[in-house]
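To assess whether the prediction recovers the assembly geometry, we first specified each molecular entity separately, as shown.
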Amino acid sequence: MRKCARALLAGLAMVVSVTAPSLAQTLRWSSAGDVISYDPNAQVDSFTQSVQNMVFDGLVRRNKDMAIEPALATSWEIVSPTRWRFHLRQGVKFHEGQPFNADDVVATIQRQIDPGARNKENLSAVTGVEKVDDYTVDLTLRGPYPLLLNDLVAIYMMSKPWMAEHNALKPGNASTGVVTYASNHANGTGAFKLVSYEPDSRSVFAVNKDWWDKPQHNLTGVEFRPIASNATRVAALLSGELDMIAPVPLQDIDRVGNTPGLKVVENPSLREIFLGFSFRPELHAAPGKPNPLLNVKVRQALWHAVDLTTIQKRLMRGKSRTSGMLVAPQVTGYDKSIDVPLDYDVAKAKSLLAEAGYPDGFKVGLACSNDRYIADEQICLAIASMWAKIGVLADVNVESKTTYFPRMDKGDLDIYMLGWASLPPMDGYSVLQALLATNDGNYGGSNPNGLSDAKIDELARSASTELDEAKRVDMLKAAFKVTHDEALYLPLHQQPVAWAMSDKVDMPQFPDEYVRPWFAHMN
Amino acid sequence: MIRILSVRLLQAIFVMVAVTAIAFLMFRFVGDPVATMVREGASQAEKDALRVALGLDRPLLIQYLEFVGRALHGNLGTSFRYQEPVASLLLTRLPATLELVMVATFLSLFIGIPMGIVCALKPNGFLSRLIQSLTLVGISMPTFVTGLLLILVFAVTLRWLPSSGRGELVDLGFWKTGFLTASGLKSLILPSITLALFQLTLIMRLVRSEMIDVLSSDYVRFAFARGLPRRYIYGRLALRNALMPVVTVTGLQIGQLIAFAIVTETVFQWPGMGLLFTNAVGYPDIPVLAAYLLFVGFLFVLINMIVDMLYAFIDPRLRTK
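The predicted structure of the complete assembly is given in tokenized form:
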């Protein structure tokens, strides 16, 4: 027995010593949250999708400039407005050796649109999938739909024989308690293979030497370790146990950046932060009185009274980009001429309030999360004090995202902070559909406070089926123009994405905050 | 004896019912899981459908009764976050927590008892004063501060030990252990010290006061008078008797450590049940939260019951009452 244990220990020591040197080119990185599941259909978490992207490829993908380019499909054509044809790449192999062909696409799409798939709405326009030949597939659509390629970026191709072998042709589902082999194993065609996955500990990836594309990285492996505590995550980077952390907590940026051997990389992300208004007849803060926010002059006055420059300089430490619309410059539908915030002018704000019939201001609720966006709580408090100068008394309510967003969804808040990244489609239509259109069925899912504008509703519906891209973009811009003119929302800024990494790592940063190690270099 | 047993069992069942009710009702108000489970652009119809699928649209009492009914069959539901049965989730996390607790208990006993003896034998000596004041600092510092200080010194500055995680593990089939690898053992050091600190102080003080008591008792003084060797008096007579309450307290403390390893596990990203719980709070993963409270409640009821039974067994006066 003792001999056996000794042999075991010796064996382990060998394993450890053999694996140690190969760590040299292994990118070890950390984030606050973990991958929820490796099943592409069992969750809707964008961080999880970003990590899965290391293992899986879609029919199309985003390149370094965030533009859509061919991946597992080499080309496509619109056969009719409701039928798109995709020609598949030949000679591609899954990590476990199965060849990729039309059967895999059919099985993957069927799994994706299965009623039991948690993220079936990510491909809601597709009604069916048909195999034409071994390397051609048709997708049938509910109606004309311009954003199919945007949606397909996040649809990852799985192997049909592999799913059949492991009884995973149907997706896992929390509500019915279905767990499949695909939850903790992954067999994709991507740049990296998943070697092991231990929830809350680590995911280990090896390089896929048979990748169909030419690698643009020089890594020998990737190790991802989630670390929930901000302080511990920073400590692990400082101690050299990690090569990169994403994100780096805002308060630690200076300290990490000043440490020799480390660097901080910052860019504006796609996420726009703004305030939403209640359009209900009464405010929760002042029951029994008509809602002043229904008057456009009041909303404009509130906008004029917010000192965006101070927020940018003091609270965001100069790292954010002040903005006047709800989408970032990289997102389709962005218009520079609309992206102009109302200037900071207290006198004008006061006169607008007086014109609207509120010379002495009014009482209103202002709600924020304190653990979702960068400096969210501080921004709320600052805005409340700015509004106090024009007589608007904001009753500030700050709480954790777990209780804040459900209350927002129920329409319990008067003025509330919200952030929007337009992901995964990276298209302004996401804002029209979810934030601007009247809450009704498939529209206005995040517009719980009675905002309703007939012109925007009409634009949202026509933009959802317009296949002429130029016309469609004009519709998006027209809707954003109305939003700005009517001050339907109060845009604050585009928040930054900040990563910290070792000098040895050269890794491009993207505004969608995805970590893409297949573009990383280490020396 | 049977009467006591049945009364205790009845009490235990009552406590467990209360725990399930509180756990269930409390976490219904933590937040709405639907808000965190849907995608960013989700429509109202999508949110409503998910709410129905999760059974959140039904009356609270029905949801509670179903929860209890399933729990009685050993089914604790499915985690909203991991999409896995909660019972198996807890079981996979149990080894990490138990290993941490085992090492912490070991540390607190093997450091705490000698320290207590030193403090008892020379109560006014320099060493015992130093130990007493040091442990006082240790016990009055919040766990996360202790943990972060240790990380700062031993991981960031000295780079001797890892700052987080469990290191390399060996899978024994039913148990993933960190005891068999160098990195696994190294990873255990900082979190177990952090967790052990409170218990260590407790045991040190307990041993010290019990030893002082015993040393001033008549039979020890007679032993000295008979000229028995010091080693025999301190070791055999004094320490043995002083250790009786230490055993009881250690038993109860193990329950405490398992239940309250939450902070330590979060600071060190230790993938045990405590970390599972903290992550579940943020999500909010109600089945996991409720099951964890149920588990901890069960643990304490069980430990207390065993302790009570042992007392009754040892002390006949409790039986005749």
